[in-house]
Amino acid sequence: MEYLRALKDNLNINLDVFNIVSIIDILIVAFVLYRLMLLIQGTRAVQLIKGMVVLLVATAASSLLNLNTVHWLLRYTMTGLLVALPIVFQPELRRALEKLGGGDFFARPLTQMAEGDRSALINEVVRAALSMSATRTGALIVLERSTGLQELIETGVKVDGIVSAELLMNIFITKSPLHDGAAIIRGDRLAAAACVLPLSESRELSRELGTRHRAAVGLTEQSDAVAVVVSEETGNVSMAMEGTLYRRLNEAGLHELLVKYLQPTTTRSAFSSLWQRR
């Protein structure tokens, strides 16, 4: 009887502590964490956080398994990372403060691509590339995959329009205000145009390649994005992926490559009959 009375008193104390203020406190923290997750979504910070989680798990596992040397090494690695965090996440921290000061902290995230729209998206990109190839209209179209390109999207002009061949062709028409730069597709929407991409410094690239091709290769060296390039000089269609440039693609070759690399999980296969690898 005394045990039940003590249990009841303990529950009453806990209920008094867990009042409406505590609920509000938890909801505020949950909301802030949710908004922070949305803030880093679509940026390279996601991959960095995943790497830190792996290190934390490995550190805990080495401690449980009494792997003293490994644990010592991982522990000091984590200490170094904690010091480097403000530097590593400097772009994300700056963006968070800018959005907080500008009132954009509560904005909704960009629309993500639906599974059923993938085939239609690929068809529109292929149709646009082949049409611009016929008129020798230079173009650089980037398709975002798992590595976020938000930093690069912010260098261009926001569009946020449904992807269509006509929209892409109008962007890259000669003397168009947005033709100089890259158009970045996120999901089933064209996020931005006239975006600035990093140039590749690889010496293996042919000297005949221009800035568009070097920008396409440079981006894919730093991310898992796919970049489609139409040469203004020759009209040739190329595609860059993982730092490799596949040149002189025909319609079937471009379509097959896009289908392959835009799937959630893919396995490489040979398409040597459809393109020349440089």
TrEMBL record:
Pfam families in the cross-refs: CdaA_N, DAC
Transmembrane segments annotated in the record for this chain: 17-36, 48-67
Keyword Secreted: no
Enzyme superclass (EC): transferase
Alphabetical list of SUPFAM superfamilies matching this protein: YojJ-like (SSF143597)
Record keywords: ATP-binding, Cell membrane, Membrane, Nucleotide-binding, Nucleotidyltransferase, Transferase, Transmembrane, Transmembrane helix
Any one Gene Ontology BP term: cAMP biosynthetic process
The DAC domain, residue ranges: 90-251
Coiled coil segments of this chain: none
Catalytic activity: 2 ATP = 3',3'-c-di-AMP + 2 diphosphate
GO function terms (MF aspect): adenylate cyclase activity; ATP binding; diadenylate cyclase activity
EC number: 2.7.7.85
Domain of life: Bacteria
Assembly and binders: Probably a homodimer.
Family affiliation: Belongs to the adenylate cyclase family. DacA/CdaA subfamily.
Functional summary from the UniProt entry: Catalyzes the condensation of 2 ATP molecules into cyclic di-AMP (c-di-AMP), a second messenger used to regulate differing processes in different bacteria.
NCBIfam families reported for this sequence: diadenylate cyclase CdaA
UniProt-recorded name of the protein: Diadenylate cyclase
Record organism: Desulfoscipio gibsoniae DSM 7213
Encoding gene, per UniProt annotation: dacA
